[in-house]
């Protein structure tokens, strides 16, 4: 069994040299440290210390520091992304009953006229965006937005990471991908029921004035199919053959000051009045209340807490 | 700067993607091994037990029977002997998970407590990560122990003799499968003898009258 060898530094002892010719070179050598092998046993596995007097981490640290061990400065750094913002600023609040009322009825017409008159802030931010990006037009942009949406979800089903990163911002990427690593997604975009349109724009500037990001909200009403299969190929949610009508408010973002920036999907706004999603195909246990020794669960009339209907962002 | 912030994460994720692709291939080969009933010895299984949880099967059609979920879990470097652990592992093979947990709770061995923790962890993982519906609907398909890395000390004998004392460690592996455990036919000695006699009677004598 070959024992592994540790190497340590060792300075040459002054040796009586017969050869006077290399005396000068020896002198040089004496100044240079040379590695000399020293034999030790190679430890593959260092067991945890048992029956140590000071068990807590703090006491052990104090002892080690007193003995002279120095711990290197720990840099607690987190990577920062400057190519996208962390959220949706001044979000769009979708009006209640959107896409429920037909456009021909009185209420529908009123809603349409309200929507057509975009607020002043949106117009201002559109003008700011056009300053930095002359190709932007609120007529042509929604088509582009829909194309980005379709491409991003197609890349998600194939899990093409590079393409997904180019179509979706860094804030949106983990929300799209979380939990899907070992699942199979089957998504299909069948058709668009209404032409998409821009409903809201904002131009927040982050940290320093002038560092502009443009956020545009696009309203999309379309027909899609989704089926989620788990690791073993069993259907978890949805149906591949059943198309559903989906009303979505997409937020796209672009770093305007960056000349190489591009419009990418930043998030989705889920309104407070959105219908609840379908339940999953399996039964789930919800933790119940803590029972006292004399109580019975049936007599308690425990109501499962329902979540509040609040607008949230995906 | 954003690109450089993403590089290491990107590399790690590409590495994971390669594992993902490899695991898809592994998934297909594991179905092959099920079909051909290959016998794989524990030494061949031990190293990549955790990776077996990463295989992704393609979506099933509606007419196919539902594939049972399989969860692999292990604990490494347990301070116990692999031979002593074997007795517990052999006890649990083929039991339902509830039955296994009750047996381990009332077993006096040191390894029983450790195996119980491992099985409870695996059950928790199954419900949370692997889309198992009912946590009692699992049974132990495979359970075995393997040798861990040993520490060596000197054991002093009389007359100046010495020996190497091994501080033994073991690994414990368990595979939980969703569903009802398969019923193993119990063959008695009498059945085996009857089969043997039938085999003898079915022999044909060639080149005879």
Helix-strand layout with pairing:
The complex is a heterodimer of chains A (314) and B (209).
Chain A: E1 5-10, H1 23-31, E2 34-39, H2 57-67, H3 106-116, H4 120-132, H5 141-158, H6 161-167, H7 172-177, E3 184-202, E4 213-229, E5 235-255, E6 264-270, H8 297-300, E7 312-313
Chain B: H1 2-36, H2 42-46, E1 70-78, H3 82-92, H4 97-105, H5 110-129, E2 138-147, E3 151-156, E4 162-167, E5 170-178, H6 189-201
Helix pairs in contact in B: 4-5
Total strand segments of chain A: 7
Structural class of chain B: alpha+beta
Question: Low-confidence parts of chain A lasting 5 or more residues at pLDDT below 50?
Answer: 1-20
Helix-strand category of chain A: alpha+beta
Distance between the termini of chain A: 60 Å
Q: Radius of gyration of chain B, Cα only, in angstroms? A: 24 Å
* Overall average residue pLDDT of chain B: 84
Q: Helical element count of chain A?
A: 8
Fraction of residues in H or I helices of chain A = 25-40%
Q: Characterize the main sheet of chain B.
A: 3 strands, antiparallel
The count of DSSP E runs of length 2 or more, i.e. the number of strands of chain B, is: 5
| Bulk shape of chain B | extended
Strand order of the largest sheet of chain B: 1-5-2
Domain Tim44-like (chain A): 122-270
Pfam family, one (chain A): Tim44
Subcellular location (chain A): Mitochondrion
GO cellular component, one term (chain A): ribonucleoprotein complex
Overall description:
- The complex is a heterodimer of chains A (314) and B (209).
- Chain A has helices spanning 23-31, 57-67, 106-116, 120-132, 141-158, 161-167, 172-177, 297-300, and strands spanning 5-10, 34-39, 184-202, 213-229, 235-255, 264-270, 312-313.
- With 314 residues, chain A is of the alpha+beta class.
- Among the domains of chain A are: 1-38; 109-278, Nuclear Transport Factor 2, Chain: A, CATH 3.10.450.
- In chain A, the strands form 2 sheets. A 5-stranded antiparallel sheet of chain A has the order 3-4-5-6-7.
- In chain A, β5 and β6 (264-270) form a beta hairpin.
- The longest helix of chain A is centred in the middle third of the chain and has 18 residues, at 141-158.
- By secondary structure, chain B is an alpha+beta fold.
- Helices cover 44% and strands 19% of the residues of chain B.
- Chain B contains 6 helices and 5 strands.
- Chain B has helices spanning 2-36, 42-46, 82-92, 97-105, 110-129, 189-201; strands at residues 70-78, 138-147, 151-156, 162-167, 170-178.
- Chain B has a 3-stranded antiparallel sheet with strand order 1-5-2.
- In chain B, a hairpin with a 5-residue loop joins β3 and β4.
- Chain B starts with a helix and ends in an 8-residue tail after the last helix.
- The model of chain B is unreliable at 1-35 (pLDDT under 50).
- The A-B interface holds A 44-45, 47, 79-83, 159, 161, 165, 170, 181-184, 186, 227, 229-236, 282-283 and B 1-2, 5-6, 9-10, 13-14, 16-17, 20, 54-60, 66-70, 77, 130-131, 133-134, 149, 151, 167.
- Chain B: InterPro entries: Ribosomal_uL22, Ribosomal_uL22_bac/org-type, Ribosomal_uL22_sf.
- Chain B: It is found in: Mitochondrion.
- Chain B: Keywords: Mitochondrion, Ribonucleoprotein, Ribosomal protein, Transit peptide.
- Chain B: Belongs to the universal ribosomal protein uL22 family.
- Chain B: One of its GO terms (molecular function) is structural constituent of ribosome.
